[in-house]
Amino acid sequence: MSKYHTHPLSYPVNLKLKVMDIDRSLKFYTEILGLTVIEEGKEFKLSADLKNPLVILQSPENPVIKPPHTTGLYHYAIKLPSRLDLGKFINHVKDKEVEIVGGANHGVSEAFYIEDNEGNGIEIYVDTDEKNWFVNGELKMVTDPLDYKGLMNLAKNDKWEKIPEQTVLGHIHLHVDDLEKNAKFYELLGFQKTLELPNSAYFYSQGKYHHHIGFNVWNGRNIPAPPENAIGLEYYTIKVSTEEKLMELERKLKENDYLAERKDETIITKDPSGSKIILII
Ligand SMILES: [Fe+2]
User: Fold this and answer.
1) Neighbours of 153 (CB within 10 A)
2) From the CA of 59, how far away is ligand 1's center (Å)?
3) N or C terminus: fewer CB in 10 A for the chain?
C-alpha cells in the first residue's frame, strides 16, 4: 500500500467519466488499461483490486463533445507499484499499438502518457525514492527524458496480464480558470502547496506527497465549465480520514459559500472552476 494513499491523509481515489460510446470505452478500459468491471448497470465500475472502483463510466443522455477552452480534466494518473510494472505496461501498450503521447522522468516519478478512446488524458507512473523529492524543503520536479529502453528491458521476460491490484489513482490534474481561487479552495480541503509554477500550474498534496492534485491555466483563464452533457469528467472522489473530518469539511465549505450537499455518507462539492468532487470516508 502506498503510504501517501492511505489513512490518515485525504487523497483522490477514483473518478467518473461521461463517455460517448460505452462499448468502446469498456473495451479500452478492460483490454488496454486492464481494469475489471465489478458492477454494471447505468454506470460501470471498473477496479484494479476487484473491490474498490478506480474508474466509473457512464454514457449521459445526448452526449456532446467537450468544447475546447473549458475547465475539467487535464489528466488522471494511475500509480503502479513498481518499475517492473511500468516496464510491463509500456511493452503492453506498444503491443496493442496505443499511441504514447508523452513520457518523462519528473525526478519524483517516472511517467508516460496515453489517451483513452475519447481523448481523456491518462498518466501511468511510478514514484521514485521519496528521499530525493524535497531538497531544503523545495520539491524537485523536472522534465527529463524517460528511460524507455531501461524500463522495457527490465520487463522483457515478463508478460503483462492485467493492471496490478495495488494500483491506485495517484493524482489528478485539472484545467482551471483561475489559480488563486482554486488554491484557496484546495487549502480549505486541507491540501498544502508543494510546487508553484507562477501563472501556470500549482501542485497540492497532504503528508508531503509530491502531489495529489495539480491544476493549471493551460486551457486559458476565465474559461467556463463544460456543459452538463459534455463527455469527460463527471466527478472525482476524495477520501477523507474520518466522519469528524468530513463534518468539519462540510461546515468549512458552507461557511465559505462553496457547495456542500450531503448525500448519504458523502458530501458533494465543486471546485471554483466547476469540477465536481465527492468527499467520502
Ligand atoms: Fe500528472
Assistant:
1) 12
2) 25
3) N
| DSSP line for 164-200 | -TT-EEEEEEEE-S-HHHHHHHHHHTT-EEEEEETTT
How far away, in angstroms, is 260 Cα from ligand 1 center? 27
HSE-up of residue 227 (Cα within 13 Å, Cβ side)? 10
Picking from 19, 20, 96, 89, the residue whose alpha carbon sits closest to that of residue 55 is 19
255 CA from centroid of ligand 1 (Å): 31
Residues of the chain with pLDDT under 50: none
- Report helix, strand or coil for 268: strand
Whole-number Å distance, alpha carbon 251 to ligand 1 midpoint, is 30
| Ligand 1 geometric centre to CA of 45 (Å) | 23
Give the largest CA-CA distance in the chain: 56
Task: Enumerate long-range contacts of 158-164, CB under 8 Å, 24 or more apart.
Answer: 158/84, 158/87, 158/88, 159/88, 160/34, 160/88, 160/89, 160/91, 160/92, 160/95, 161/34, 162/34, 162/35, 162/36, 163/33, 163/34, 163/35, 163/48, 163/78, 163/80, 164/48, 164/80, 164/81, 164/85
Domains of the chain by residue range = 11-280
pLDDT for 278 equals 98
Question: Which long-range CB contacts under 8 A does 100-103 form with residues at least 24 apart?
Answer: 103/145, 103/146, 103/148
How many residues in total does the chain contain? 281
**pLDDT tens figures, 194-208:** 999 999 999 999 999
215 C-alpha to ligand 1 centroid (Å)? 9
